[in-house]
Amino acid sequence: MKKIVEVLPDVEALIERARVVTLEKINTAIAERGVCTIALSGGGTPKPLYEAIAQQKLPWDKIHIFWGDERYVPADDPESNQLMARTAWLDRVDIPASNIHPMPTDKADPAVAASKHERELQEFFQVAPGEFPLFDIILLGIGDDGHTASLFPHTEALKVSDRLVTVGNKDGQPRITFTYPLINQARYVMFVVAGASKKPALAEIFAPNGDASTYPSRLIQPQGELWWLLDRAAGEDLRSE
Ligand code: 6PG
Fold it and tell me: Transmembrane stretches, by residue range (predicted)?
C-alpha cells in the first residue's frame, strides 16, 4: 500500500485537489484497461466534487459508476446518496444509463438487497462467489465517529469479511455497504475529509495503534494507493506524507 496524505488550506482547495486526483485516476484506469470503475461516497462533503467533475469532458461511456454505501431509502428520497450524485453530477453528463449501478433499496429486507447487489457486482466484474473484484477508484468520507462507507462502530458489518456487500446499521437505521475487504481490493482509495468535527476521529484513525471496531476507517488498508485529502480544519494536526 502506498499512502498519500495531503492537507489543503481550505475546503475549496480540498475539492479542487480531489477533482485533479480523481480525474488523473479515471484517465489512468481508462488508459490501462479501457474502462474506469468508480464507487462514490455519500454525505455532504463530496457534493461539490461531483459538481466539479460534471464540468469535465470525459469518455463517459468508459466510466462505470457505483456507490460504496447507500441509505436504505427510495432512490428519490432526499437522504439518498444516489439522488445526490445524480443531481450533482450524473444527470449533467452524457453517461449511458447502463453505466450507473445503484445499490438496490426496494426490497423489504435490506439483506436481500445486499445479496442482490453482490450478485450484480459478481456479474459485472465476472468474479465467482468468494472472489473480490478490483474497483479502480473508491471515494470515501469519514463520520465524526470514525465510520466510513456505512461501516459504523461496533456493528456486525465490521465482522463481514467473506462478502462484497452487507447490511450496515446507523442507530438502528439500515444501510447497504461495501465490506472492508472489498474496499481494500481497490487500486485507488481516496478519503476526502473536511471540517474540524473530524479531527478527533482522524487522530484515532492515524494513531499507531487503535481499535478498528471503534474507528472503522482503520480497517481501510488497501492493496493499492490510499489517498487522504483533508482540509486544514480537519487535518491540521496531521502531517502530509
Ligand atoms: C454516507 C456516507 C458516509 C459519509 C460520512 C461523512 O452515506 O453518509 O457514505 O460514510 O462519507 O458520513 O459524511 P459528510 O461528508 O457529510 O461529513
Answer: none
- Residue in 94, 102, 95 with CA at minimum distance from that of residue 42: 102
**Residue type for 154, please?**
H
Overall pTM > 0.95 = yes
> Which position has the grid cell 438502528?
172
137-195: per-residue pLDDT in tens?
A: 999 999 999 999 999 999 999 999 999 999 999 999 999 999 999 999 999 999 999 99
Q: Residue 49 carries which side chain, given as an amino acid letter?
A: L
Dihedral of the alpha carbons of 193, 35, 165, 182, in degrees to the nearest 10: -70
**Distances 11 to 6, 16, 22, 194, 199 between C-alpha atoms, Å:** 13, 9, 16, 6, 15
The C-alpha atoms of residue 154 and residue 50 are separated, in whole angstroms, by 31
Say yes or no: CB of residue 143 within 6 Å of ligand 1.
yes
Tell me, what's the ipTM?
A: 0.97
Closest approach atom of ligand 1 to CA 70: 7
Could you give the domains of the chain?
Answer: 2-192 (3.40.50.1360)
